[in-house]
Amino acid sequence: MKPNIDWQELDLQREQFNKIGTLYPMEENVTVFMKSVSNVDCYFFTPSKVSSNRTVIYLHGGFYALGGIESHRAFVSHLSFKLNARFIFIEYSLAPESPYPKGVQEVVNVYRELIEKGEGSNLFMMGDGSGCGLLLQTLHYIYKSSISAPEGIIMVSPWLDLNCNGANLFYNEENDKTLTMEKSLKYVSLYTGSDIEKESNPIEIEFDSFPRNFILVGDSELLFENSLGFHESVQAVQPQSELFIYKGAGHVWPLIDIDSEHSQELMDDILEFLEE
């Protein structure tokens, strides 16, 4: 059953979310070009003086219904430059026009084609917010299909529990200025329909194997304790799970201000993770 939505409101929310991408300029030392991979638009970010063979596949957040290259182009360009890596930004289809599992299928198809074309060496995956949920869904398929897994994954302010239940999710509801419980639940219905099936909820996935991973979360965001819980659970299968907490930071804070101390610290921390 498709959820009823106000299309005018959704268009407005998408327009406002995309304006986040204008809060600061792109990194001028990074070039971007678009290329279709498995019939999905992908944007390739390359620093002008890249000296590593690292490639990072990026999955953006936005409640599965908002965002894309317009909202994230500037942020990803700074990541690409600071991390000395090529980034591949996947412009997956959004809900409710393309509800679950369309976006997951597109990301899986892109990932498979990249691997088949020799992109598997020193390959990482990264996401923010709901993009981390897509990341876990993709990783689950990778392990089931015996496709080469990424070297590691990076999750910024991950949103993994679509049910949004549990007392820990309300821990910072009054402190988080970006993410609200009401907004989260509203967009979940656009992505999954009236019911959330177990297979559509990333937090329900059980992994026997998991790549080394890095979770970055602000202690002032709604999902703070949810991130702690996931970190503890994944350590059972991957002891090299790392969690960094940024005091006073909100949901996906570098998207709002790339020059802040917390944002610069985040990029330094990710670089260290990549070079381990």
UniProtKB/TrEMBL annotation:
What InterPro entries would the database entry show?
A: AB_hydrolase_3, AB_hydrolase_fold, GDXG_lipolytic_enzyme
**Membrane-spanning residues where?**
none
**Which UniProt key words apply to this protein?**
Hydrolase
Q: Is Iron a UniProt keyword of this protein? A: no
Please state every residue range assigned to the domain named Alpha/beta hydrolase fold-3.
56-253
Which domain of life does the protein's organism represent? Bacteria
- What are this entry's molecular-function GO terms? hydrolase activity
Identify the PANTHER family for this entry. Answer: AB HYDROLASE SUPERFAMILY PROTEIN C4A8.06C, ALPHA_BETA HYDROLASE FOLD-3 DOMAIN-CONTAINING PROTEIN-RELATED
Name of protein: Alpha/beta hydrolase fold domain-containing protein
Protein's organism: Flagellimonas olearia
